[in-house]
Design a protein that fits this description.
By secondary structure, this protein is an alpha/beta fold. 37% of the residues lie in helices and 16% in strands. It has six helices and six strands; from the N terminus they run E-H-E-H-E-H-E-E-H-E-H-H. It has a six-stranded parallel beta sheet with strand order 2-1-3-4-5-6, with helices on both faces. Strand 5, helix 4 and strand 6 form a beta-alpha-beta unit. Helix 2 crosses helix 3. The longest helix is centred in the last third of the chain and has 22 residues. It starts with 6 loop residues before the first strand and ends with a helix. This is Alpha/beta hydrolase.
């Protein structure tokens, strides 16, 4: 069976990510990517948003049997993704990127989120002056989740309003995540002839 690279799952925050947002730009780079579309992007309902991630994965799996995913979330979408990972130990998501998470305490949700290392490798990208989450809080959540942490400096909420259309860092992360997945799968898929050159 031929190796298939993980597909990209885009998880927007409140009010979705518009046409000029970096998440939309990133989604356009990968033809087989999928966006989680909430029934109401104006209502931050954590259980419903997390379950919508699961429903999106299930729907995509029916269209194209099985396969693994990497997920890129923004703002409240980060909280929904963390909750999804806590609720679904069997998720096909293998690596995640959290960008500018929203502060759980703003929504009274801190206790509804995992406070332990996530089961999949993760990275968290924050800002020094994000109005939705302080850099100190972002570092605390990254530590709880076992995520690598990057602070981009004074760049706001890392969204359209703070000047982020194309976001090459996110694309580099996706490419690195796909390369990592390929390396992890290669021994299982390498042909006998290839093994002669692997020693």
């Amino acid at each position: 069976m031929a190796y298939r690279a993980p597909r990209l799952l885009i998880i927007p925050g409140l009010h979705d990510s518009g046409p000029a947002h970096w998440q939309t730009w990133l989604q356009q780079q990968y033809r087989d990517s999928r966006r989680v579309v909430q029934r109401d992007f104006s209502q931050p309902d954590l259980p419903r948003w997390a379950e919508r991630i699961q429903r999106t994965l299930e729907s995509a799996s029916r269209e194209q049997a099985g396969g693994e995913w990497i997920a890129v979330a923004h703002s409240f979408g980060c909280l929904a993704l963390a909750r999804h990972l806590a609720d679904h130990a069997d998720t096909p998501i293998r690596q995640v990127l959290f960008v500018a998470p929203a502060e759980p305490d703003k929504f009274g949700l801190a206790e509804a989120l995992p406070h332990h290392r996530l089961a999949v490798p993760s990275s968290l990208v924050a800002s020094q002056n994000d109005p939705w989450m302080s850099a100190a809080s972002a570092l605390r959540w990254a530590s709880r989740w076992g995520a690598s942490y990057s602070n981009l400096g004074a760049v706001g909420h890392i969204n359209t309003e703070s000047g982020f259309g194309p976001f090459p860092l996110a694309r580099r992360w996706v490419e690195a995540a796909r390369a990592r997945a390929a390396r992890e799968q290669r021994p299982a898929h390498a042909a006998i002839q290839e093994w002669r050159f692997a020693v």
